[in-house]
């Protein structure tokens, strides 16, 4: 997540830097650093921000279809995917080990490079 995306997310959430810091269990200095680009946004913070955005969106209207429907995943792939196992298709981006692009990604950065362009996460961004 780059500094512009982080700032935009904070504004979409309608939070001040102080409020977001409290919500994320972080310091105001860290929030300022993310927004100025002095610090990179750690994966756990990025995940929390996306989660908050998704819950805000869910509150406002119905969420997206499950990922396996959006991606037309075959039954065999679904059975191997944690999103299917836990019936969390609208939160697939939140779960490590999901089988996106036909394979599980090895790290959060690689996973999010795929997820940021996916129809499941993009309605929240």
Structural write-up:
- A hairpin with a 2-residue loop joins strand 1 (99-100) and strand 2 (103-104).
- This protein is mostly helical and 125 residues long.
- The chain contains 8 helices and 2 strands.
- The chain is elongated, with a radius of gyration of 15 Å.
- The model has no long low-confidence stretch (mean pLDDT 88).
- It has 2 domains: 3-60, 434 Repressor (Amino-terminal Domain), CATH 1.10.260; 67-124, no CATH class.
- The longest helix is centred in the middle third of the chain and has 18 residues, at 43-60.
- Strands 1-2 form a two-stranded antiparallel sheet.
- It has helices at residues 3-13, 17-24, 28-36, 43-60, 67-70, 75-80, 82-85, 108-115, and strands spanning 99-100, 103-104.
Describe what is shown at a glance.
By secondary structure, the chain is mainly α. It has helices at 3-13, 17-24, 28-36, 43-60, 67-70, 75-80, 82-85, 108-115, and strands spanning 99-100, 103-104.
What's the structural blueprint in terms of helices and strands?
Layout: H1 3-13, H2 17-24, H3 28-36, H4 43-60, H5 67-70, H6 75-80, H7 82-85, E1 99-100, E2 103-104, H8 108-115
Antiparallel strand pairs: 1-2
């Amino acid at each position: 997540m780059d500094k512009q995306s982080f700032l935009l997310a904070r504004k979409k959430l309608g939070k001040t830097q102080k409020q977001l810091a409290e919500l994320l269990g972080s310091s105001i200095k860290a929030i300022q650093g993310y927004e100025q680009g002095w610090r990179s946004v750690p994966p756990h913070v990025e995940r929390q921000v996306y989660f908050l955005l998704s819950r805000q969106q869910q509150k406002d209207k119905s969420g997206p279809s499950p990922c396996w429907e959006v991606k037309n995943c075959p039954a065999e792939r679904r059975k191997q995917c944690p999103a299917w196992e836990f019936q969390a298709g609208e939160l697939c981006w939140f779960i490590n080990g999901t089988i996106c692009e036909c394979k599980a990604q090895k790290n959060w950065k690689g996973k999010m490079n795929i997820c940021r362009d996916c129809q499941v996460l993009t309605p929240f961004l």
